[in-house]
User: What shape does this take?
Amino acid sequence: MSTESYHIPAMLKETIEGLAIKPNGVYVDVTFGGGGHSRAILERMKEEGRRTERIKTEGEGKRTDGKRKEEEGHLYSFDQDKDALQNAIEDDRWTFVLSNFRYLKNWMDYYGVTQIDGLLADLGVSFHHFDCPERGFSFRHPAPLDMRMNQTAKRTAADIVNSYSEEELAQLFWLYGELKNGRGIAKNICRARAEKPIERTEELVAASRIPAEMSKELARLFQALRIEVNDELGALREMLVAARDLLRPGGRIAILTYHSLEDRLVKNFLRSGNLEGTIEKDFYGNNLSPFTLIEKGRTAEEEEVARNPRSRSAKLRIAEKR
Ligand SMILES: C[S@@+](CC[C@H](N)C(=O)[O-])C[C@H]1O[C@@H](n2cnc3c(N)ncnc32)[C@H](O)[C@@H]1O
Assistant: This one.
């Protein structure tokens, strides 16, 4: 499978430019997926290295030792899904970490990294997840109701659908799916599961009683469950705090979000530097946030959306550590 069919990265150029990559910096891509962003980061590190070398050589006159000083940077790429490994990159400057990004700090400690120059998070699932029917992420394919990004995790979407109370399901659909009729859908599901446990995607679709033509609602129902199965917001919170502490002054964080809940969380965090979103000010009224905002929710150009419709919902936020 080509990396293009695994995933097409959104706003690739804008993200890489926004990270202001240095050739010898330490970077982390916490959502490797098809590796499109990671490859571009490594490529940019190389280009910047060549440029710096050229400038140095021109300034210094012809080098006589014939040696090229290699102060290479490094890229650590995380993904919790082992399928991403099929896109592995052959490069000495690259390390793959098969883990949830919520353990970012622990892994950086393990590799002896105390500060990083940049971090990229392209949140959510890859095209690969929707395109693999057996993973159960899509309401369009009959499949086991799974939705785990980490295929060794214990809890599947079926476990949640069959064990949460009606009230818990209603809250989940309302909060994570922003479904206005979350309560009614939860009721329908509980009625259906009293007859027989719901084990498959098509059974959930039928149990919800959302008509097939209401594909937006069905997508939201599946999104809500996916967020819960993978504790996406919990992992994001932990990663944001670790990233803030690891970034060196001048280091940059770039995040691509795909739905309003995660976007609100990222927006408030980058504005304030804390999870509560509390903006602290000094005596003179200056914002004491550890970040300066660089991109405040940029969206893909029309031309990109025409080429890659899945980039339509992406929002890019970038900040620099002060
Ligand atoms: C939108 S895709 C990233 C695509 C990537 N930027 C590219 O260029 O192909 C998100 C990837 O992040 C992974 N992922 C999502 N949440 C994660 C988490 N908490 N920890 C580790 N990986 C995660 C998913 O398995 C998926 O492969």
